[in-house]
Design goal:
CATH architecture of the largest domain: 3-Layer(aba) Sandwich
CATH topology of the largest domain: Aspartate Aminotransferase, domain 2
Distance between the termini: 37 Å
Radius of gyration: 20 Å
Strand content: 15-25%
Helix content: 25-40%
Shape: globular
Number of strands: 15
Number of domains: 2
Structural class: alpha/beta
CATH class of the largest domain: Alpha Beta
Order of helices and strands: HEHHEHEHEEEEHEEEHHHEEEEE
Number of helices: 9
Largest sheet: 7 strands, mixed
Length: 325
């Protein structure tokens, strides 16, 4: 284990991340990896049960499906299997545009959705039409924006609807995911796992019957194909120390807000823990630094705060010495 600790430390020193996930490499990502199989492997099945129970607690849902793939796979499965009738998309940036696209594809290909409407996140306090579903991104990394979940919950009540969340950039880092009815996310951001797995948590049963093996969420719930076994193993140790790793993000966020106070584009209410957008072009001091490149171009810079996850509560924000700010 001493050798593993040194190896991980060297790797993190050689590549300094200001990106949105995965986080810096953790010993715990690697130390629990084992040969495994999803059927008849008592050790794996025991650990999977523990991991999924802990993830369910984080997301505040009743049931969960685990899949191999990106967070976008979880979101598409959610759109196909749960959405029906009238759907309201909260427009906030690049990733909410993706929710709209996924919903339009589900409408065209499966016919369960009858109407899709988009409104700006700035309009939600004054909107009150009835809808079957609201589909929103909790944390929009492309803008460094958090839409307060309390606002979405009130909107849900006014619209007499259910709430579906893209929680990819908020899970494990923000509160009150339990206010949603369905949510999806990946293994590699606020869960601090390796890339390669995604999850769908839900309180309501999938509504739609889907004529597809892979895109029917029940195939994944019933484990009819290979699951993300090694990602589950990587999360086993990580989730035992999750609050410690999450604290590193909050420490770095607080320090960065103070450093860049005069350049913040969002007020305190709309600041997510994962990342910060500033109206200032930040540059790296050396080639070992990996800056985040948002998928849209709104000017300024988005800095993400997962790069000292391996330090946990011992994080002091020294990572920012690698930036020209």
């Amino acid at each position: 284990m001493k050798n593993l600790k040194k190896i991980v430390q060297n790797k993190n020193n050689n590549k300094i991340l200001f990106t949105a996930g995965p986080a810096s490499l953790l010993e715990e990502n690697i130390s629990n990896l084992n040969p495994c199989f999803g059927r008849g492997d008592a050790e794996y099945l025991k650990k999977e049960k523990i991991v999924l129970k802990k993830i369910l607690k984080l997301c505040g849902q009743e049931k969960i499906a685990r899949l191999q793939g990106s967070g976008s796979l979880a979101l598409e499965l959610m759109a196909i299997n749960f959405l029906y009738g009238k759907v309201l998309i909260i427009d906030a940036g690049y990733y909410s545009d993706r929710l709209f696209f996924l919903s339009m594809c589900a409408k065209k290909n499966f016919g369960k959705i009858k109407k899709i409407k988009r409104i700006s996140w700035k309009e939600i306090d004054n909107f009150s039409e009835n809808y079957d579903w609201i589909f929103s991104c909790y944390t929009e990394t492309s803008l460094g924006l958090k839409i307060p979940i309390e606002k979405l919950s009130k909107l849900k009540k006014r619209c007499k609807s259910k709430l579906m969340l893209d929680a990819t950039a908020s899970i494990g880092l923000e509160k009150y995911h339990d206010l949603s009815d369905v949510l999806g996310f990946s293994s590699c951001k606020g869960l601090f796992g390796l890339t390669g797995a995604c999850f769908v948590g839900f309180k309501v049963k999938p509504h739609n019957q889907i004529n597809s093996f892979y895109m029917d969420i029940n195939s994944h719930i019933n484990k009819k194909m290979t699951g993300p076994y090694h990602i589950i193993y990587s999360l086993y140790e990580v989730l035992n120390k999750h609050s410690d790793f999450a604290e590193s993000v909050k420490v770095n966020k607080k320090i960065f807000l103070k450093k860049m106070d005069s350049h913040l584009s969002q007020s305190k209410t709309f600041q997510p823990n994962l990342c910060t957008h500033v109206n200032y072009n930040i540059a790296a001091k050396n080639k070992n630094v990996i800056l985040y490149q948002p998928r849209n171009d709104i000017g300024g810079s988005v800095v993400c705060h997962l790069g000292e996850a391996h330090l946990g509560k011992k994080a002091k924000g020294k990572i920012f010495n690698n930036l020209k700010i």
